[in-house]
TrEMBL record, chains A, B:
SUPFAM superfamilies in alphabetical order: Nudix, Winged helix' DNA-binding domain
Molecular functions per Gene Ontology: hydrolase activity
Designated name of the protein: NUDIX hydrolase
Hydrolase listed as a keyword: yes
Residues annotated as domain Nudix hydrolase: 17-158
Entry annotated with the keyword Hydrolase: yes
Record keywords: Hydrolase
Domain NrtR DNA-binding winged helix: 174-234
Pfam family, one: NUDIX
Length: 251, 251
DNA sequence: TGTACATTGCGTCATATTAACACATAGCAT
DNA sequence: ATGCTATGTGTTAATATGACGCAATGTACA
């Protein structure tokens, strides 16, 4: 959660942080990028502070970039969390010392923080998880197997997934999560994983193709068991257009 | 925008404010509660600060209560606005003097603020617009005739309406905006006003009744020109249930 | 080599939902 | 009485959805 090269707290917007729920899709699993601190092995969402001269959206992009190496990613603000006691008693003096925080900065870290939640959809294979502190671990974890998280990060994660599910009814998803070439069954698995329920193969094909955002390639997936499925790619222009105008119906 | 009985700035969460877009429905118009300061006649959304020991949701409820006298109202957080320069140069030293802000507090008011947007749906006839400062005006204004607003309040208002339109597809609306007894044409007008387009009378009736949240009363509207329309009320239990589970289709 | 099996691709059909419209009724105005 | 306007109810065609059937393709293995 904390980042190195920390500036003096005066350079940050006081009492404000950003937490990112970064989703990736791999091995038919929806995964979330989580961070384990070296201090006490507690897990958290990647997050950070907002510089005093930085837009909040820019700060979110910057956190995402520093953790995945990626830019130009689908990133959306979904909620702000501001219960008084959400970060009460989180940082002990011991932990702050561990992170190399000077004594005079302790008060700042122990003060009340409001956090803005962003969720991102990233191409799993292109992301390079990046630790920030020595001893820190950054890992992709199946969203079904997320361990206990610090603070209200579990609530933030749940809300992000809930938002993603709702927005699946309003926009197409996949361009950001899948490789350039993919099969319809893979896309279906993605939808099923996000929604948490199965969909009928044949109805899915009909519906997803009728949106008009897919280009059928003259190529089949190789090295697969059973019948080789056709490869598709997204028609970026039409995809963007539908993203902007919204879908008319949901799943 | 500012409130009297201001506490010392140290009692507030620094750099954080809340702005409320309060919608009401009257005379077939969707209206927004706006505030005109006595200082320079500029218009703004009702807003306020967050006490250091107050949840953000509680702060929003409190602003709503102080401006309308209402509690237990539909209130939803929809976005947080945090561009660096969003409140740059807003408060002149003159204006702060006008509002009775001591000199030593000036810096606080001129610092960067991030604001959390909430929108509310309230029963127009039950709300009692309440001024907070002498010289201040609080008025319901048709959302089509909103004057120029301070800061990024126009953007906040637009985003609130956009969110409301989207959420109309996910939940029923009306319980919070209409009187206890109402007619189907009135409810339709509400939907049309929010959506900004007309709907077919007969299709609307079929769809809205099929949701199962309406109770047809054995009573007709009186004192109307032309044929007297039937009165309806909401079935609160079923309404709440649908609010929680969501609608399956939209408009 | 050929048979079983899992998966994909394409199609069908009954039902539900939506959009567009016709017509009768109620109440006011003249 | 007659016209005007808005309400209440019904009809129909087009479209979308949900639940399947079945053939084709490629692997595994007897």
């Amino acid at each position: 959660m904390l980042k190195t090269h920390l500036k003096n707290s005066k350079e940050y917007q006081p009492g404000l942080s950003i937490d990112c729920v970064i989703f990736g899709f791999d091995d038919n699993q929806l995964k979330v990028l989580l961070i384990k601190t070296g201090y006490d092995d507690s897990w958290s969402l990647p997050g950070g502070f907002v510089s005093i001269d930085e837009d909040i959206d820019t700060a979110a992009v910057s956190i995402l970039q520093s953790r995945t190496g990626l830019t130009g990613i689908f990133l959306r603000q979904f909620a702000t969390f501001g219960k008084v006691k959400r970060n009460q008693d989180h940082f002990s003096s011991d932990s702050l010392a561990y992170f190399g925080i000077p004594l005079e900065e302790e008060k700042w870290y122990k003060s009340r923080f409001v956090t803005i939640g962003y969720y991102a959809l990233v191409n799993f294979s292109k992301a390079i998880p990046q630790a920030d502190n020595p001893g820190e671990m950054v890992e992709w974890i199946d969203h079904h197997e997320v361990p206990e998280l610090i603070l209200d990060h579990r609530e933030i994660l749940d809300k992000a997934l809930e938002t993603l599910r709702t927005e699946l009814n309003l926009m197409p998803v996949g361009y950001n999560l899948l490789p350039e070439k993919f099969t319809i069954p893979e896309l279906q698995k993605l939808y099923e994983t996000i929604l948490g329920r199965t969909l009928d193969r044949r109805n899915f094909l009909r519906k997803i193709t009728s949106i008009g955002i897919l280009t059928k390639l003259d190529e089949k997936k190789s090295n697969v068991a059973h019948k080789a499925p056709n490869l598709y790619s997204f028609d970026k222009d039409k995809y963007e257009e539908v993203l902007k105008n919204g879908l008319t119906q949901g799943w």
